[in-house]
Design goal:
heterodimer, A: Four Helix Bundle (Hemerythrin (Met), subunit A), extended, B: 78% helix
Chain lengths: 194, 100
């Protein structure tokens, strides 16, 4: 039964990822990535990770991909990608090495882990997956959990500072301090009016 | 139960596709999406190993990876935006000011 869910989901996952690689349009790539995240959520359910399946859809497919789409819309998607190679043979080498990596990993898993399903999570999930995760998160992993909250705040502030527009006053005071900016012409935000 | 070999191989394949995407593409947004794909592949591995081991620690670790990925996306996209403001391009080849 599980196999009948796993095989199509895995195939859809790999296909979505591969088509994302070749997508000309950034919006298409983003939508294929969302589809890939959904297939991963299905796999999480199959692997008894119910909470992570929900988080996968809410955080990844919901929040992160909306952020991606926002930036794609702001930057514009009609720009043609430059396909000239700056390093010779980079593309074929990258593809060969990528598939070589996947092959080596598959070989290692085949020789060591095939047919060893392990203990399973029936005992650990006995009082519910969310309850079990919550118990771990607020006892053994309390400190990393708190550090993660600091990390999120720092990331939010960092994004605000990076995304902020430099106003005239600030640039004037910088010129007064350091003299005229030698690369100032480069910094004038070319072509953006919004 | 599904053979962990199958899930782990799928995760390795997704990771390889993400790595190839980072190496092959020039558009910084798509490179970033490939990085997300690699993070997700690693999450899948962690969840599979958690089930093999019979404890939930792997799932907690995957949860932390999702948190860090969220923070990373926020900062990374802000960097791409400010880069685009200076260079009017989302291509990684145009971001070479610090190149020696």
């Amino acid at each position: 039964m599980e196999k009948w869910i796993f095989v199509p989901t895995a195939a859809a996952s790999v296909l979505c990822a591969a088509f994302m690689l070749f997508a000309r349009n950034a919006v298409h790539a983003a939508l294929l990535l969302v589809a890939n995240f959904f297939t991963l959520a299905v796999l999480y359910v199959l692997l008894d990770a119910h909470f992570l399946a929900a988080v996968q859809i809410i955080v990844y497919a919901g929040a992160i991909m909306v952020l991606f789409l926002f930036v794609i819309m702001l930057i514009g998607v009609d720009r043609e990608e430059d396909l000239s190679e700056s390093i010779p043979f980079q593309r074929p080498l990258a593809i060969a090495l990528g598939f070589g990596f996947a092959g080596v990993m598959a070989f290692v898993f085949w020789t060591t882990l095939r047919g060893k399903p392990g203990k399973g999570l029936v005992a650990a999930n006995a009082s519910g997956n969310v309850q079990g995760l919550g118990r771990l998160l607020f006892t053994r992993y309390m400190f990393p959990f708190e550090v993660a909250s600091v990390l999120l705040i720092v990331a939010a502030i960092g994004a605000m500072i990076l995304g902020r527009r430099r106003d005239e006053e600030e640039e004037a005071s910088e010129v007064a301090l350091h003299g005229p900016d030698p690369v100032g012409a480069d910094r004038r935000e070319p072509g953006i009016v919004s | 139960m599904i053979d962990p070999f199958a899930v782990l191989t799928l995760a390795a394949t997704l990771f390889a596709i993400g790595a190839v995407g980072v190496l092959v593409r020039r558009n910084s947004i798509i490179i970033f999406m490939s990085v997300e794909l690699m993070l997700n592949a690693v999450n899948l591995t962690l969840v599979t190993f958690a089930r093999m081991k019979g404890t939930l620690d792997g799932q907690v670790l995957a949860f932390f990876v999702i948190i860090v990925a969220a923070a990373e996306v926020v900062v990374g996209l802000a960097i791409i935006m400010s880069l685009y403001r200076r260079k009017a391009s989302a291509s990684v080849d145009d971001a070479k000011t610090m190149k020696w």
